[in-house]
Design brief:
Length: 387
């Protein structure tokens, strides 16, 4: 070995070893679509994050795991991942948009607005940031901002199914039936797989945006008084997509038309697809209640409450009516009071009826409002005309 070879050998031996990071396998670390296993995606991303990652890959893995956690309704874990991603890449609007969405679903609208605005400061044309601003406007009553944000978001991304559903909600909220119908039909005409892969929580059940759009079209036609078209839409829905939602809501349509036997048959079919969907048991209980089959009604409401206790106002109230008809007065009164104490939304809906029937007077200043409600409930429960 000559001197040059010796020097080269020594230099190579003393030089730090240069290692090339192994490529990241993103196959399982992906945002879950409809029907995907969210826990599996979270675990896969956690495994990716345990490796030696570049800053960009680490941000990607954090955002993906956060979105998977969000879709699994683990908002606190999602927020931690998004916050870490923001710290890692403060100039990237993506984690800010995801953080805004998580804050929105925690009902922290001020924080959601702040994160969405920060994303828009980085990218004024970010469609999802605009959509988040729009949804905040929708729930807080700033409809002008909501409409502008949805219009802009859809102009930037015409295939954005989420923004289109939100703009449908805007039209629906302001009572613009024809515009709402045009929006939902335009949504169904989109040529995008997002309609079938993206999903949302609907009354505690995950459904795709296409399912939601088909349901909204039928129920909108019903609300507009176009009953023949609504029934045709429900029939098409059941034919194209037989399942708990299509049969269940056609059953609801029949119930609203006082066609209790047809309603019951559809609800039985719906329950064969998903026996644990709480609202189907609630609806079946309503059918029994109006048919005077009170024992069956109580059993159905029992099941509804066992499956969905956080949505219990209607079930408690309806069970109270069935119990009253069975002369189980004490149980009926307890259920009726519980309907209001457990479900503030139900209280707000029912108070107008109590005032109209004379059971409840608007409480004076410095009086116990809940005591007045309890008195109204007591009065209602002894009056068989009160429903």
């Amino acid at each position: 070995m000559n001197c040059r070879q010796i020097l080269t050998f020594v230099a190579l031996a003393m030089a730090p070893s240069l290692t090339v990071a192994a490529p990241v396998d993103w196959t399982a670390c992906a945002v879950p679509n409809a029907g995907d296993d969210k826990a599996k995606a979270i675990a896969a991303c956690t495994q990716v994050l345990a490796g030696d990652l570049s800053a960009a890959d680490r941000e990607r893995a954090l955002i993906t795991r956060g979105r998977a956690a969000h879709r699994a309704k683990d908002l606190d874990t999602a927020i931690r991942d998004f916050d870490e991603a923001i710290a890692l890449a403060p100039k990237d609007p993506e984690p800010l948009v995801r953080r805004a969405s998580a804050a929105f679903h925690k009902h922290d609208y001020a924080a959601a607005f702040d994160f969405a605005k920060r994303a828009l400061d980085l990218d004024a044309d970010h469609p999802e940031a605009l959509d988040t601003i729009g949804t905040i406007g929708l729930v807080t009553g700033n409809l002008k901002i909501a409409k502008y944000a949805f219009d802009r978001s859809i102009a930037l991304n015409p295939n954005d199914v989420t923004a289109r559903v939100h703009r449908f909600q805007y039209w629906n909220d302001i009572g613009a039936g024809p515009e709402a119908l045009q929006e939902i039909e335009g949504l169904l005409a989109l040529q995008t797989s997002d309609l079938d892969t993206h999903f949302l929580d609907f009354r505690g059940k995950e459904i795709t945006y296409r399912t939601l759009a088909r349901l909204n079209r039928a129920t909108l036609l019903e609300s507009m008084g176009r009953f023949q078209e609504a029934l045709a839409a429900f029939d098409d829905f059941v034919q194209i997509e037989p399942g708990a939602v299509s049969y269940g809501w056609r059953g609801w349509f029949y119930f609203n038309r006082d066609k209790f036997d047809l309603a019951g048959a559809d609800l039985d079919k719906a329950l064969s697809y998903d026996p644990n969907f709480w609202i189907l048991h609630n609806l079946k209980g309503q059918v029994y209640l109006y048919k005077g089959e009170y024992e069956r009604a109580v059993a159905s409401f029992d099941r509804s409450l066992a499956l969905g206790p956080d949505r219990s106002g209607s079930s408690y109230w309806s069970r109270a009516l069935a119990l009253r008809a069975l002369h189980r007065a004490d149980e009926a009164r307890k259920d009726a009071i519980k309907a209001f104490s457990e479900d503030p939304d139900f209280l707000r809906r029912k108070m107008r009826t109590f005032v109209k029937l004379g059971y409840l007077q608007p409480p004076a200043k410095d009086t116990d409002a809940m005591a007045a409600v309890r008195d109204a409930v007591e009065a209602c429960m002894v009056d068989e005309k009160c429903w």
